[in-house]
Structure to design on (120 residues):
């Protein structure tokens, strides 16, 4: 007796069923149920905590409370003229022999720069 042809026919008949089961199980593993996605998406997320920044050793400009912006006669908003300097430490020596954290802070204080680097 030759059992090879009936076994081959059985395997060929079972192959599409096996492929279907593998496909369905991979869909269940990799794609969650639609109701799970909706319930997770609708839950509010906690807001992140604000970043705490420690004060820098260099002098920095003090920020004041907001002031009202004057309107011109045409109803347009006039731009603010306040200079805001970055907190990058790149020291310069002013003509008054005082070290400033960078060129911007010296210029904001209306001090001419004598030379780059800390004052001696």
């Amino acid at each position: 007796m030759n059992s090879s042809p009936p076994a081959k026919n059985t395997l060929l008949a079972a192959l599409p069923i096996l492929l279907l089961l593998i496909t369905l199980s991979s869909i269940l593993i990799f794609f969650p149920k639609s109701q799970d996605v909706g319930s997770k998406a609708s839950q509010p997320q906690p807001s992140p905590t604000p970043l705490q920044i420690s004060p820098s050793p260099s002098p920095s400009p003090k920020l004041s409370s907001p002031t009202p912006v004057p309107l011109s006669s045409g109803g347009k908003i006039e731009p603010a003229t306040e200079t805001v300097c970055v907190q990058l430490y790149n020291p310069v020596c002013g003509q008054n022999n005082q070290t400033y954290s960078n060129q911007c802070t010296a210029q904001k204080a209306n001090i001419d720069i004598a030379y780059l680097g800390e004052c001696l």
Summary: The radius of gyration is 36 Å.
